[in-house]
């Protein structure tokens, strides 16, 4: 059984912009299935908001499409059904998360993480 974790937005962003360290290892292990990241709709929306900030994009050598693919890879089948989040989330936002998660591919996410390693080494 895999260990369930919550990958905070700061950990995900650190994985994008710091070439070494534990954040990228946590994301890689999650994509490889060693950890089972739990993700609420609210957390996914926060990821989506922060990854498009100019300050993040300026420090990350990946394209926005690559970052989005990596985000989708992290979210695939990882929905954490929080009653308060579900009750407060707007219907269209919730469905957007489910669509994005369904489009996710952990193998593509790993390939992009490998690309990020090469670009920042």
Please write out the topology.
Elements: E1 3-5, H1 9-17, H2 22-31, E2 35-37, H3 41-50, H4 54-59, H5 64-75, H6 83-88, H7 91-103, H8 106-120
List keywords for this structure.
single chain, 121 residues, 2 strands, 67% helix, 5% strand
Task: Give a written overview of the molecule.
The protein is mainly α and 121 residues long. The chain has one domain (3-120). 67% of the residues lie in helices and 5% in strands. A two-stranded parallel sheet has the order 1-2. α1 (9-17) crosses α2 (22-31), α5 (64-75) crosses α7 (91-103) and α5 packs across α8. Residues 80-88 have low confidence and may be disordered.
